[in-house]
Amino acid sequence: MALRYQKGTALSTSTVVNLRSTKVPLRAVDISKVTFTDCPVRDLISQIGGKWSVLLLEALAQRSYRFGELRRMVPDISQRMLTQTLRELQRDGYIGREVFPTKPPSVEYRMTDLGYSLYEPLAQLLNWAEANHDAVRAARASFDQSPD
Amino acid sequence: MALRYQKGTALSTSTVVNLRSTKVPLRAVDISKVTFTDCPVRDLISQIGGKWSVLLLEALAQRSYRFGELRRMVPDISQRMLTQTLRELQRDGYIGREVFPTKPPSVEYRMTDLGYSLYEPLAQLLNWAEANHDAVRAARASFDQSPD
DNA sequence: CGGGATCCATTCCGATACTG
DNA sequence: CAGTATCGGAATGGATCCCG
């Protein structure tokens, strides 16, 4: 039983198990010719696992913002990464991009319905992070002093 | 107004806004001498944003597993990354590690209470990923054909 | 203003070999 | 069985310059 899909066809005789809840029986899936992005979880993690995606989703969940506004909200992001991350979020359908042909041009980014639906469970996770950050840092400090 | 904490003290006169829900008023936080890991969200993302963390949390949310079992469940993980990721998860207090001094030795990993509490909102997010993967891939295909 | 293009440092991660 | 150590390639991301 293999966990989550993997690249290539190296394990064509194996199966992949989609684990989710302990209350749900495990489902076996043929792994032959299954590619990386076929696994929803690996796909999502590889996307929003980036350094900036979640921060931008957080901002745009509030309201629409222009490129320069976002840049000022995340002061330590480079222009390159801001552009690139916004493109990826747009490509996945989480945010929309509208160009206003003013001089100089302005571009506004806004969350889509799909993006809002993603942000719901995501916000819960971020709330957890904030609520439990002290516990995590305590565990970390304890481990660093004497690895259990 | 800056979004989320950043490194160093370069923006000592700025403030950071913790954004979360549109229903919650924005809170301003002094950014002076605030380091990277002081932001719970950035900290969490940099941790579980890795390639393997979520998969291992998913597995261990089911039941305890031994090192070799986890390795077989995630066949495309290297021994190096399995060890490393498990250490990080243990360090943050999400999982525990117990050594049984048999010959040869066996080591069992199990989720902690903190890990289970993290897995609750995380599982919701993963459920979303599975439920909406088709929509994401459709948006991606559409974008690749003609960038909106 | 909102990018694109290029170069470079760092980090991540896989492969391999070795060990108690 | 469950690691550790080392190496090298791949991917990530920052800095800088240019452009309509």
UniProtKB/TrEMBL annotation, chains A, B:
Pfam families: HxlR. PROSITE patterns: HTH_HXLR (PS51118). The keyword Transcription applies. InterPro entries: HTH_HxlR, WH-like_DNA-bd_sf, WH_DNA-bd_sf. Signal peptide: none annotated. Keywords: DNA-binding, Transcription, Transcription regulation. Residues 39-137 form the HTH hxlR-type domain. One of its GO terms (molecular function) is DNA binding. This is Transcriptional regulator, HxlR family. It comes from Rhizobium miluonense.
